[in-house]
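A favour, since you know our structure tokens better than I do. It will help me judge whether the discrete encoding reads sensibly. The space below this message is yours for that.
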Amino acid sequence: MNRAISSILVLALGAVSGQCLAGPHGDVLSKCIVEKTSKEDRAAIVTWMFAALTKNGSLATLSTISDETRLAINKAGGAVFQKALAEVCLEESKAAFKLEGQSAVGEGFRGLGELAMTEMFADPAVDQELKHLINYIDLNKLVPIFLQPGVAPKNEGQL
């Protein structure tokens, strides 16, 4: 049973990072989770993902999280997963697991992860920090990509 639960959590993290494909029941579960979680729930998931990512060797030196704080973050993230699957979206969770398997349950969290990240990137301070990247890009090297003769832009949005 613990192995099955661990597998579902790994699949859920994969879904949050965009690595799963949904079936119709996973889509219904994802919609339920997105609609029935709060902004605070989504912040807890982003915090949990950030804390998990700091264990990667490339990021480990960028953040120091005490064991006590990491425990609190894991508890808060686990509470969101539990509430979403076993309480507010119980019927959708059961149907997704029964009809599409563990990956559908994991996929159910893709929308939550996407919305949570969208909300984090919408923070004015984060947006401002992201804009600093342009200072380190030689735009002249991008001109041949974006200004090709005979190619009309298909998206009027900014880079």
